[in-house]
Amino acid sequence: MEKSWWKESVVYQIYPRSFMDSNGDGIGDIQGIISRLDYLHELGIDVIWLSPVYRSPNDDNGYDISDYQEIMDEFGTMEEWEQLLAEVHNRGMKLIMDLVVNHSSDEHQWFVEARSSKENRYRDYYIWRPGKDGKEPNNWGSNFGGSAWEYDERTDEYFLHLFSKKQPDLNWENRALREEIYKMMTWWLDKGIDGFRMDVINFISKVEGLPNDEVKPGNKYASGSKYYRNGPRIHEYLQEMHQEVLSKYDVMTVGEMPGVTPELAKLYTADDRNELNMVFQFEHMGLDNGTNGKWDLKELHLNDLKTNLSKWQTELEHKGWNSLYLNNHDQPRSVSRFGDDRQYHYESATMLATLLHMMKGTPYVYQGEEFGMTNVNFPSIEDYRDIETLNFYSEAKEQGESEEQIMASLYAKSRDNARTPVQWDDSLNAGFTSGIPWIEVNPNYMEINAKKAMEDSNSIFHYYKKLIQLRKQNEVIVYGTYKLLLEEHPAVFAYERKLDTQTLYVICNFYGERTTVDLEELNGAQLLLSNYKKDETNEYKPYEARVYLVEKQQ
Ligand code: NOJ
After folding, report:
1. Planar angle of CA 20, 24, 27, nearest 5 degrees
2. Which pLDDT score, from 0 to 100, does residue 536 have?
């Protein structure tokens, strides 16, 4: 396997709106980020992925971009962004930017032009269709609820939007549009950035004719996703993008890809195919979804998680590369979702981190995860800000679901769980802002905050530091092969990593009850890391995680 800096890196995701506010307007900004770079450096991360900071009317918090080459006013100026890049580089870290090119904002100049007339030269940058029998051109639903089509009176046609109606889909079939995007990417790369995270990049090629999909019983719209995920020209577009842009720089790329399978991921990420370095897969994020999707709550079965993550590990062993994550700005907080954010807050947060960081792939830390930020239970829908959450709430209300049931879904799955302000300390507003935060701070900030975690050498923060250091000291963590152990154990997720003379054993008790683990292989092994005081009996305490190393003489 070829070695690369991005395989050896740990990435930290910043969601700028909620990270750190420097000017008291209640919204995170670039100077706020700069003020926390030493903190990130101390944590030991290598790469920062910055969620969108471009000009945007914020229908979807920056994932609706009205100018790809300007900075959002609330966040600062281009000069400040340049200062950020320089300061990141000065500390020996790298910066990757979010590339959101499946859609733009409806306030982007291209769309303003496009909707003005059918003859406009930008018309074909978007996906327009006449209505069918006075209705939408097909039966696809948007990922944020409702139809995926919006009628535009001026030209008596509909445009496609797989997300909100303020996020019209770009038409990748159009060569001129693709060239504009490649030019824009080149412009950012020439500024010195170190790569891109690509938003729903496997949605950019749609099946010709945009056929109707099957509507599931009880639903108004069909998903349509089989006609736009991993579409017919996706590999061609990615290879073209690679050839025209990415191949000219030493950068990393990660494609966000709902619905990607390991078979496809190999095509997207194999070194010799010149597409992307890695993808964000979603299968493990769906294991606690019921049959009606994310809001339909289901208990996670450890066995499903073991089978799924192990499948990704082994399938991509020799071809392709994994990205490793348990949460981000779209997902609930991992300690609340998969651990116990009360009684075993430290133990379960560190166990989950161990499980993830010792796997093969590039690990991603989402802001606040490194000191165990948790989900939030806001008392009322008024406190929520996320468009997907708000749309779900009103649709569910219309369908007669109870308030209690709806709120239970939000508490478990709303994207706002991940978007409450970063809890820096125990001062007003958790030290995030001196103003009124755009979204309420999680009330547990007096207990859970970065300052406290940094001062306590036995905190989640310090444990993350150790995990990150271990990766730098042991090649086996980066390049070793993976094998699942104790497949049948009902409470333990254990695996082995092997490289040359080194073998690593990772053993995680996934639950809050004691359990026993018998593994002969551990005889003579050295305990590298554990989230409890050193104890090498075969009894594992609640959420106990241990990492052992065996060095064989050659
Ligand atoms: C995925 C992003 O991560 C999410 O936040 C956004 O709402 C959609 N793509 C649409 O851009």
Report:
1. 50
2. 86
At 554 the pLDDT is 65
For ligand 1, atom 8, the nearest C-alpha belongs to 63
- DSSP 8-state assignment for residue 432: S
Contacts of 288 (CB under 8 A, 6+ apart): 297, 298, 299, 300, 337
How far is C-alpha 169 from the geometric centre of its chain's CA atoms? Answer: 21
**C-alpha span between 173 and 510 (Å, rounded):** 47
Which SS3 state, helix, strand or coil, does residue 242 take? Answer: helix
| The pLDDT value given to residue 122 | 98
Q: What is the pLDDT of residues 170-221, one digit of tens each?
A: 999 999 999 999 999 999 999 999 999 999 999 999 999 999 999 999 899 9
Select from 470, 465, 508, 512 the least CA-distant residue to 345.
512
Q: What is the pLDDT of residues 16-57, one digit of tens each?
A: 999 999 999 999 999 999 999 999 999 999 999 999 999 999
- Mutational test site, ligand 1, from 56, 64, 68, 100, max ligand atoms within 8 Å of CB: 100
Is 3.90.400.10 the CATH number for 109-160? yes
In whole angstroms, what is the distance from residue 214 CA to residue 205 CA? 20
State whether CATH 3.60.15.10 applies to domain 480-551. no
11-103+175-384+417-464: CATH topology is TIM Barrel (3.20.20)
What pLDDT digit, counting tens, does each position of 416-463 carry? Answer: 999 999 999 999 999 999 999 999 999 999 999 999 999 999 999 999
Strand 157-160 relative to strand 149-152: parallel, antiparallel, unpaired? antiparallel
- Closest C-alpha residue for ligand 1 atom 6: 63
The CA-based angle 201-206-209, given to 5 degrees, is: 170
Write out the catalytic residue numbers: 199, 256
58 Cα–ligand 1 center, Å: 12
Q: Which of 356, 286, 275, 280 is nearest to 322 (CA)?
A: 280
